[in-house]
Design a protein that fits this description.
The structure holds 2 protein chains of 2 kinds. By secondary structure, chain A is an alpha+beta fold. Helices cover 33% and strands 20% of the residues of chain A. Chain A folds into 4 domains: 6-92, 2-Layer Sandwich (Uridine Diphospho-n-acetylenolpyruvylglucosamine Reductase, domain 2); 97-216, Uridine Diphospho-n-acetylenolpyruvylglucosamine Reductase, domain 3, CATH 3.30.465.10; 220-328, Alpha-Beta Plaits, CATH 3.30.70.2190; 335-418, Alpha-Beta Plaits, CATH 3.30.70.2740. In chain A, helix 1 (6-13) runs antiparallel to helix 3 (50-63). Chain B folds into 3 domains: 11-94, Alpha-helical ferredoxin (Fumarate Reductase Iron-sulfur Protein, Chain B, domain 2, Orthogonal Bundle), CATH 1.10.1060.10; 108-268, no CATH class; 281-388. Chain B starts with 24 loop residues before the first helix and ends in a 19-residue tail after the last helix. Classes of the chains: A alpha+beta, B alpha/beta.
Chain lengths: 466, 407
């Protein structure tokens, strides 16, 4: 054990970066966006650049405390928090976009680049990076890769793993490994190990940079929104859309409580009270999408909507998506705390599982708001509560567990895009049997044998032992 | 220990979504969560709840905030950050946890006595009237030395006798004492557009100075302005400084909204200045207290068109320039770093001359300092948009009545 105090050791490892260790400096890092669960770290470091992050990781084993990587702290699963104490590494200093290769349709970015900053840099080149989690203005690519982030447009475009060509990662032995690269694939490795890195939630190593695949920007986008009087008719519309050859880029749903939340806020877009809203987009060459938009609107009407609005104007598109993507924040106008679940279910079970959410929440006196990626069957029931009121959190946890049991009964799974963190780790054994758990455990055990990296995440009992 | 006033329970709105981080100048500068609105709210709420002892770092991060309020615009949960910040800073200053620089404490005392302040800044007006600039914040202009804006407005009202809507005009403290030529231009533009200008002589500083610095003394100023403005029989109260207008608006609410003079003129459709053949280009920066404080969409397009210049928004026009009311005096290094990012484009900007236009005198001071301190190495002019609408002496009131007089 190193005899020096932690802060002195950190100072040696990060001569240029910042070291925070006063109680008021640690407080800001006690939680991610799942704000009500807090864990104070022993220290926070902000490496000045990638070289310093590598230097830190080389000496991290000697520190003898857990190490937790953090992007912008927008995770909703309790991922980047010091559940077992230790040092939080904030990667905000690694924000260089190192290369945009338009001809090759790839870019090279550091792990702390904010998603929308990348979008803004790509746009003038006529290319884009499709994953679009709602936290885009601030979330980092590092966090996106660590949680295999998704977003509304993943229905057609797929999640982060579809766009990672290569990952550079520093392991706890101090080695810098490059899995894949601009050319994608497995690189010089026998197996495609970068896939292990995507969605690893900070349990395998510290990412420094990525090579990401880009696509040409769609030439034209039609945004449509339709409202429905009941769950059955909107469900019919979703099924019809998924099967339709127009292949929307995104199919999003807001339930009446979500609609009410938007309409009573500064982001109101004129939705009828009590309705279910479907928000979707089709994009592509103008001739193609112009030909398709009519049949799609007809399909929406045929499923039971007499309120279909469509536009190819960017202003309307921005307005609708802003309201959708701010939903998590809008919840703050209704309630001090919320838990959002991230289960994915077969779409045939949509109405059934949503009804369970309403029934369970109503019975417990907890408000539930559903705003989610309907096309993917990726539910986001938000359970509103006040952590200061004794018993409310317990009620929410009980509802969440019942929901998870039903999700698994219908053949679904725990998380579509938010990750497991420490919020959903308790449900892991519900989905995976002992053999499957053993295999999954073997991965962090290989890269991170003492579980020094992000302990108590993903697996409930995965604890760092010095 | 100093007794603390309880904080309003607005923290509970915060869902920790982090949208505020993306727009926060000090988070962008430092990459430190505690130096963001979400981080500061957590520090304040933890301390208020008794879970975090008073800590010099809480004081430090509170002092670091520019107060630009960009986070309020970004916040879906509508956390009233500005109110919480003002409350906390005021508490910190009165408890001795934070100490504004001597210059600010002196100035805060001075602005409460406008006549005294006007006299104290006579040398500044004199030097500026000679066309000199001796300080990085003193942008160029030719203010009147002795005639007040109120006296000037009375004179022009007598001379021109406009018949349109009546407005009461906040002349401000620093604006009147140092940059009076902007007030004079405002009076000319309003009267040319057939607006009757009333200047209540018992008005005083809006209190923004105290709000920004956390110093005591805002309340008597607010009360005096309520007495000065509320009884007036006018169609609108207008201000030519977005920060002062925002602050006065809070004082006169809910009885009387305070309008930014450019927004007011936008509704009238102001007389257009012709500048045929000009190769000048106007870059418009939007003050934080206009777009994030007053929540205005911007400066009306017809007003910018009426300047006669070809114009465009400055890059990142909605981001703070680092002025932050008195931030560039309290935290000059941060303010300069923020300005460095904002002003870099001027080095390459097209136009002869290049004009940086905005609608707040303290932003103008900050923009002027970019040249005076070497961040911008090519010549450029800093101007209030109202000055670009100025007909100058010897104008006539527009012939036609305004299309729609606001009521």
């Amino acid at each position: 054990m190193n005899p020096l105090p932690l802060s002195s050791q950190l100072k040696q490892l990060l001569p240029r970066g910042r070291i925070l260790d006063s109680p008021a400096q640690l407080a800001g890092y006690a939680a991610d966006a799942l704000g009500y669960k807090s864990y104070l770290p022993d220290a926070v470091v902000i490496p000045a650049d990638a070289d310093e992050l590598v230097g830190f990781m080389k000496g991290a084993r000697q520190l003898g405390v857990p190490v937790i990587l953090r992007g912008a702290g927008t995770s909703l699963s309790g991922g980047p928090v010091a559940a077992q104490g230790g040092v939080v590494v904030h990667t905000s200093g690694l924000k260089r976009i190192r290369e945009i290769n338009v001809e090759g349709f790839w870019c090279e970015v550091e792990c702390g680049v904010a998603l929308n900053d990348l979008d803004a840099a790509l746009k003038p080149h006529g290319v884009f990076y499709p994953p679009d989690p709602s936290s885009g203005p601030v979330c980092t690519l590092g966090g996106n890769v660590a949680s295999n982030a998704g977003g509304a447009h993943c229905f057609r475009y797929g999640v982060t793993s579809n766009y990672v060509l290569g990952v550079e990662v520093v392991l706890l032995d101090g080695s810098v490994q490059r899995f894949g690269g601009p050319a994608g694939g497995r690189g010089p490795w026998r197996e495609d190990w970068k896939r292990f890195m995507i969605g690893s939630e900070g349990t395998l190593g510290a990412f420094t940079r990525f090579w990401l695949r880009l696509l040409p920007l769609p030439e034209k986008v039609w945004t449509l929104r339709a409202t429905y009087p009941d769950l059955r008719s909107i469900e019919a519309a979703i099924h019809a859309l998924v099967a339709h050859s127009s292949y929307p880029a995104a199919i999003e749903m807001l339930d009446p409580r979500g609609v009410a939340m938007v309409e009573t806020s500064q982001m109101a877009v004129g939705l009828p009270k009590g309705s279910f809203m479907l928000l979707l987009e089709i994009d592509g060459p103008p001739a193609l999408v112009d030909a398709r938009v009519g049949p799609v609107a007809d399909l929406l009407r045929h499923a039971g909507s007499n309120d279909v609005v469509l536009s190819d104007q960017d202003a309307m598109r921005q307005k609708l998506w802003k309201a959708r993507k701010a939903a998590g924040g809008l919840l703050g106008q209704l309630s001090p705390d919320y838990v959002v679940q991230d289960a994915v279910i077969p779409k045939s079970a949509l109405a059934d599982v949503l009804q369970l959410v309403y029934d369970e929440a109503d019975a417990a006196g907890i408000r539930a708001v559903n705003v989610f990626h309907a096309g993917d069957g990726n539910l986001h029931p938000n359970f509103l509560f006040d952590s200061r009121v004794p018993g409310e959190l317990e009620k929410v946890e009980l509802i969440s567990e019942r929901l998870m049991r039903r999700v698994i009964e219908v053949g679904g799974t725990l998380s579509g895009e938010h990750g497991i963190g420490n919020d959903k780790s308790a449900y892991m054994p519900l989905v995976f049997g002992p053999d499957s758990m053993r295999l999954q455990w073997a991965v962090p055990a290989a890269f991170n044998p003492t579980h020094q990296l992000n302990p108590l995440k993903v697996f409930q009992n995965r604890r760092f032992a010095t | 220990m100093h007794p603390k006033t309880p904080l309003p329970d607005y923290f509970s709105n915060c869902t920790h979504c982090g949208f505020c981080l993306a727009v926060c100048p000090t988070y962008k500068l430092t990459g430190d969560e505690n130096n963001s609105p979400r981080g500061r709210l957590r520090l304040w709420s933890e301390e208020a709840a008794g879970r975090l002892p008073q800590d010099k770092w809480t004081d430090f991060y509170t002092d670091e905030c520019v107060g630009c309020l960009a986070c309020e615009t970004a916040c879906p949960a509508q956390v009233p950050y500005g109110e919480l910040f003002e409350h906390t800073r005021h508490d910190h200053v009165s408890a001795g946890r934070s100490k504004p620089p001597l210059a600010l404490r002196l100035a805060a005392a001075a602005v409460a006595r406008p006549a005294w302040f006007n006299l104290a800044l006579l040398p500044a007006r004199f030097i500026r009237s000679l066309g000199l600039s001796i300080h990085r914040f003193l942008f160029k202009g030719r203010p009147a030395l002795l005639q007040s804006t109120a006296a000037y407005a009375r004179e022009l009202m007598q001379q021109h006798r406009p018949t349109g809507p009546r407005v009461a005009f906040l002349t401000g403290c620093l604006m009147e004492a140092a940059f009076r030529e902007i007030n004079f231009a405002t009076v000319r533009v309003l009267i040319e557009n057939n607006v009757q200008v009333v200047i209540p002589e018992d008005q005083t500083c809006c209190g923004a100075f105290q709000e920004h610095s956390g110093l005591a003394g805002a309340e008597p100023l607010r009360a005096q302005n309520r007495r000065a403005f509320l009884p007036l029989d006018v169609d609108a109260v207008v201000s030519n400084s977005s920060g002062c207008g925002y602050s006065l608006g809070k004082s006169l609410a809910p009885e009387r909204p305070v309008r930014d003079v450019l927004a007011f003129l936008g509704e009238l459709g102001p007389v257009r200045r012709e500048r045929a053949g000009s190769r000048a280009r106007l870059y418009v920066d939007l003050p934080c207290h206009l777009v994030h404080g007053q929540k205005a969409a911007g400066i009306p397009q017809n007003v910018l068109d009426a300047t006669g210049y070809s114009w465009e928004l400055a890059p990142n026009a909605r981001d703070c320039c680092g002025s932050g009311g008195v931030y560039n005096i309290q935290k000059p290094e941060n303010a300069r770093a923020i300005l460095a990012g904002k002003s870099a484009f001027l080095n390459e900007a097209e136009g002869a001359p290049v004009i940086l236009g905005t609608s707040n005198h303290v932003c103008m001071m900050q923009w002027h300092s970019a040249g005076a301190t070497g961040l911008v190495t090519r010549p450029y002019e800093v101007s209030h948009i109202i000055q670009l609408l100025d007909p100058g002496a010897g104008f006539a009131v527009r012939a036609t009545a305004p299309a729609s007089a606001p009521c």
